[in-house]
Amino acid sequence: MRGIARLALSLALALSLALEKAQALAAAAAAAAAVADTAGSDPRAGKNSPAWYPQGGARYATSHATKTPIPGEDHFAETFDVETILEFHFHAYFFEHNPQAKADAMRLRRELIDAVARGDFVCVLPGVTAAMIPGLNESEIWPIDDGPIGPHPVGQYEIWVPDEHLAAVMSFIMIHRGEVSILFHPLTQSCIEDHSGRAMWLGPPFRLDLTPLTRGTDHCDRPQYRSLGLGYAKRHVAGAALI
Ligand SMILES: *[C@@H]1O[C@H](CO)[C@@H](O)[C@H](O)[C@H]1NC(C)=O
């Protein structure tokens, strides 16, 4: 009898221990699930995490090999909708923690501003004024970025140029670029394509982060400086109404 009682007691003990363990396991699982919820952007959470796959514009353009070939039609799916490109950006890049690199980029900026002030051509960059370009709305000028922003991996400033002045500005930058790397890209409704397949470089290229770019008509670079009546803002020109 005594042996049976002892057996029952040890069985009960084992059962309660098992229950405790099960409860502890359940609590641990719940805690892990809660962590997975709050860590939705942590790629270590694996395929359940939104950060596991490329996001934004990086979903459409990647340098990775793909498991299956991309159909040829898809290369043209992203709205090759502009007959003629009428506005462009040059982005002058500089390593923001390297004084020489920044000084070289600022030297080019100064020389461009001086050329605009002389009336050699029209382009808009930080430092040009309405006195140099009549009708310019100076508050629309994008300031110098002293670090990465949007798709740009290092410090940069933007130079907007309409097609009327593209050759002159291109020539000037080719001659005066020094060691500055310049991204050259068009402004259309296909922001991602503009910064990848349609982009060109003067000097060694940098890798852009396409993640912040958006697709389709929600383009990131709208036609700019419309008050100047240049580029897409010019009247009675085929293609001008496309954007
Ligand atoms: C100049 O640009 C700013 C910023 O886009 C805008 O708020 C303002 O109305 C513009 N001024 C004129 C005179 O168009």
From TrEMBL:
Residues 1-24 form the signal peptide. GO terms for molecular function: dioxygenase activity. Keywords: Dioxygenase, Oxidoreductase, Signal. Gene3D superfamilies: DOPA-like domains. It holds the Pfam family DOPA_dioxygen. This is DOPA 4,5-dioxygenase. It comes from Hondaea fermentalgiana.
